[in-house]
Amino acid sequence: MPPINRRLSSSSARKIRFLATLIFITLIVVQVSLGLRLSRLNDVTLSESSNAQTQQLDLIRQDEKQDTSSIEEERLITPNASDGTLKGKERLWEMLSTRNVTKVYAKYWDSVPQWDTILNNIHRTNNDPTPLIHGLETCEQFQRITRENPSQRRIAPAGLFNTGTNLLSVLLEYNCQNPHRVAKFHGNAKRGHGNEWQVPWGKHLPARHRGAHFTAKNPTYTVDEVLPVVLIRNPYGWMKSMCRNPYTASFEGRSDPNKCPKLKKENSEEWNSVKAKFGPYQSHHHSLAHLYNDWYGDYFYKNSTGTYSEKSDTSAPFPRLIVRFEDLIFFPYEVTTAICNCAGGQIAHRADDKDVANDVFHYVVRSAKAGMGHGPTSHRNGLIDSWIRYGSANPKSEYSQDELTLAQEVLDPHLMDTFAYSK
User: Fold this and answer.
1) Of 49, 92, 213, 420, which has the fewest beta carbons less than 10 angstroms from its beta carbon?
2) What is the DSSP string of 222-247?
3) H helices within 214-352, ranges in order?
4) Which residues pair with 142 in a beta bridge?
5) Secondary structure element (H or E) that encloses residue 176, with its range
6) What is the pTM assigned to this prediction?
7) Averaged pLDDT, 52-62
């Protein structure tokens, strides 16, 4: 009998050791998983702290290359009229104030351009300080097509790389609601806002794939129930951004910031061709400027593959809006409101949004890009960085006269004139 007891004790001990080891491994896996989740949450800088209304955001600065020791030596200020630090920047400071920003570094704020300078560089004026939105005449058509089941209406961004599609999706998600969908989900504005991250065929795919390609296996809505909002950007600024982060486009010379972009190869009349991968499809273009023409032509023209005279017909191939990237940066409230109204929605505060007060528009202060697919974090812009980068100078200033001449020969004049990029 004693030997049997020893065997039983030994077996039990082995079981206990096995269970202890299993529990220890499980705890390690859980800890690693939680660590990864926290890391991802930290990376998604769109989500402000849930108690942001009680915590003051004293500084919004995204440039990670800046020496933190020198930042600490700078002076924090609250811009005001008495010392002139608010002059010409009242509108900009008002946006920040809605997000509980009370102070900013003096040197950093001083680098923010005044409103008149911004309007000049984005080709708007004080006589017409409004966003330029193309396609508003198609809003009635979209609402008419979807009137039998308005709760199915969706708004979804589309655009080439580096044009602000992520920013638009976040602005819509926080600020625009489809009242029919909210009612369908019993007041749940988070589920019922009716805004998608991208159009069903993929936000970067050319419009010719509309109805032929779907990113979701079993979509719950049709392409006619989606209002595409296409982001377009000044091609001179856009081409430079493609040099910094080309995403899935490849072309020669993109690694040399002093020479990129080159529309023609060095000392040659041969075009510097571009190969771009959009989802499962590849396309080839003579140059970056040609890619710009080809991609936007699908959304802009009724028949983008026709002759030049046929391409003069800019009536919409289907209901859609085309919005300037620059206007999204500097007129986020006006642009979001126009888009929302076009789709039959309404600007409203989401009950679960604790970052801003009730009935206050939710401006996106931090970078709307998250994840490794969007390039290094130093190339992503928060709101203030965007004002400085895109409002301080005309993007043409980064090109030589010969480069400008060649680009002007290539870029579609209809597109350039319609969106005030010819200036």
Assistant:
1) 49
2) -GGGEEEEEEE--HHHHHHHHHH--T
3) 235-244, 288-300, 325-330, 332-342
4) none
5) strand 176-177
6) 0.80
7) 39
> Which of 140-149, 177-186, 380-389 is predicted with the least confidence, judged by mean pLDDT?
380-389
- Residue 399: is it exposed, middle or buried by C-beta count within 10 angstroms (0-12/13-18/19+)? middle
The answer to whether the beta carbons of residues 248 and 374 sit under 8 Å apart is: no
Q: Hey, which residues does 324 pair with through a beta bridge?
A: 232
- For range 152-158, the mean pLDDT: 97
pLDDT range class, residue 26, cuts 50, 70, 90: low
Neighbours of 370 (CB within 10 A): 20
Contact of 123 with 420, CB cutoff 8 Å: yes
Top pLDDT among 245 and 194 is at 245
Cβ atoms of 287 and 254 within 8 Å: the answer is no
pLDDT for 357 equals: 87
Q: How far apart are CA 32 and CA 19, in angstroms?
A: 20
At 185, which amino acid appears?
A: F
The CA distance from 398 to 261, in Å, is 10
